Amino acid sequence: MNRRPTLAVVGATGAVGAVMLQMLSQHADVWGEIRLVASPRSAGRKLAVRGEEAEVLALSEEVLEGVDVALFLVPEEVAAQWAPIAAAKGAVVVDNSAAFRLDPDVPLVVPEINPHAVRVRPRGIVASPGDSTLALIVALGALHAEFGVDEVVVTALQAVSGAGQEGVAALRAQLSTVAGTELGAHPGDVRRAVGEDTGPFAAPVALNVVPWSGAPAEGGWSSEEAGLRAETRKILDLPRLRVVATCVRVPVLTTHSLSVHARFEQPVTVERAHEILATSPGVVLYDDPGAGDFPTPADVVGTDPTWVGRVRRTPDDERALEFFVCGDNLRKGAALNVVQIAESVVSTLRPESGKRPEFGDS
Amino acid sequence: MNRRPTLAVVGATGAVGAVMLQMLSQHADVWGEIRLVASPRSAGRKLAVRGEEAEVLALSEEVLEGVDVALFLVPEEVAAQWAPIAAAKGAVVVDNSAAFRLDPDVPLVVPEINPHAVRVRPRGIVASPGDSTLALIVALGALHAEFGVDEVVVTALQAVSGAGQEGVAALRAQLSTVAGTELGAHPGDVRRAVGEDTGPFAAPVALNVVPWSGAPAEGGWSSEEAGLRAETRKILDLPRLRVVATCVRVPVLTTHSLSVHARFEQPVTVERAHEILATSPGVVLYDDPGAGDFPTPADVVGTDPTWVGRVRRTPDDERALEFFVCGDNLRKGAALNVVQIAESVVSTLRPESGKRPEFGDS
């Protein structure tokens, strides 16, 4: 297209929206107009993007007119309703919610892994994976390309901002309740001090870990666990891959950490895994525990890449590795992956309009 | 023996010692004299046990004279030096440190799993496993008895009191630094606020998780990870069992949580696993996530059993289960298992003296 495309950021006032506005101000500027959109409740607020103040508009059919690319950073139910409306108006939607991730007519894209997938988008919607999947997939995909992945067992330690600003507020409030006290030493004392309102979590998260996140899915799984499994299979195009996840909410503000056991078709060595990870786009290898070098959320938060450390050969299996990854759930886990998808969409837009092609024709 | 045995609690003033004195006051009283022993630094302090004040004695050869059973709740290097001295003086030593756990002449005992092992103690020493192994083994052992365990992949979320009172003090101090601030949103901000002194941990633990605990072992493993593997094999008497662990320190005061993937020789069902766990001594089954029922450290701390929830059949493997366990690392993970061992030792003491038998002759 000749004019620069119009971008809408739907959900500009949320936790991911805040990071998105930063990124749009820092990345190479490919956009014409940028419209900031949110719920009517937040309309009228002024936010800065690309060094200028912009007024937040209420989400409506009108506000989506003439938009070429619409970033949806909103809860699943809002995306389910509004993304098809935006697509019908000619926008390519990049959706950060779970609403369309497993729709066979919606590609699920991680630009480092399956960039080609962005071109085939029959519904005009491209989905970005969940934050825990994104913490895993760049490192796992790089190892898969060399060794062929066969089985993955993941424990995801999820930061509270994965549940939005409500999650952050809940942890901050609970920390203020427990700091400087003797709480945490007796059964239920943290629960009683925090009270009934545990925010978006099923139990207090300060001085605690909560082995549940998301909604109930079949077989005793949480939706986050089922999502990590299904999304990993879809992105790697391995519909029968053995993947199993346990998701645990931890008292960290931002950055998910994953403890990963991965088995491959080929024999593996730590040396070769190190070489692969050290040279993969989007990955930082940080692995010398004797020198104190391993990723932790406190060091990784606010950075773009997936950090990988604690790489070990599984002792009883020459084809398996253990490793530990940290990824900022608001950046690569959300805003960064969405903006990367959006930037790759630009080159696929029809020259004369923002209409979506069935196949890429850049 | 006719008189009631004399007990020494070596390390009475530590984090585990404090819980031990509580337990000795609550359990059926099988002991005659109880001597409280600690480093010379703590000697002279008065502590309550069985409703009476007792003065803490400095560890010395003299203080170990005439002791029938000596509980060692001290760091590994102190146990390595003093446990053989106590044993040479005729005491049966029950050691909570890692010093003797893998010694082939020292039994490693969990009374629910291998009670018979306590009777064969050629060095006069019985070892209690590490706190993470103890959080795992009672539930795993119960499932193993039915299904035959074949492979275990564990991520252990370790509470700070596993590193002693220093660990507790470090987390409390760090929480006071971060509570009520905006810290945790930028790379390194928690690290800068906490400063160089991170206590016994390799990185700040407030608003963070630290994928390292213990000392470096071969192959990139931490001593805690290597220990969990070797101890599980020894207790279950399965020297070739595939076991792999990742240990992560989390900002929880007390109670370790383990995310477990376990594969068995026989096909498994959640229903049968529930039946086994619901009827196993030392285990509480707490597994109805829809009703908010799963174990968390905040609820489990201060209780004796291992709590198990989130039991799921691994989707691609009819022989594997995922589950989540929580166990108080100061109780079953340390003091409780030690006192259980000590109580079982009493019946094996020779009638006329505290001398150890090669084989039990109660």
Please tag this protein with its features.
globular, Dihydrodipicolinate Reductase, domain 2, 14 strands, 9 helices, six-stranded parallel sheet, 362 residues, six-stranded mixed sheet, disordered C terminus, alpha/beta, 29% helix, 2 domains, Rossmann fold, homodimer
Describe the secondary structure blueprint for this structure.
The structure is a homodimer of 362-residue chains.
Chain A: E1 7-10, H1 15-26, E2 34-38, E3 46-49, E4 52-55, E5 57-58, E6 69-72, H2 76-88, E7 92-95, E8 125-127, H3 131-147, E9 149-158, H4 165-178, H5 189-194, H6 223-235, E10 242-249, E11 256-264, H7 270-278, E12 283-285, H8 297-300, E13 306-313, E14 320-327, H9 331-346
Parallel strand pairs in A: 1-2, 1-6, 2-5, 6-7, 7-8, 9-10, 12-13
Antiparallel strand pairs in A: 3-4, 9-11, 11-14, 13-14
Helix pairs in contact in A: 1-9, 3-9
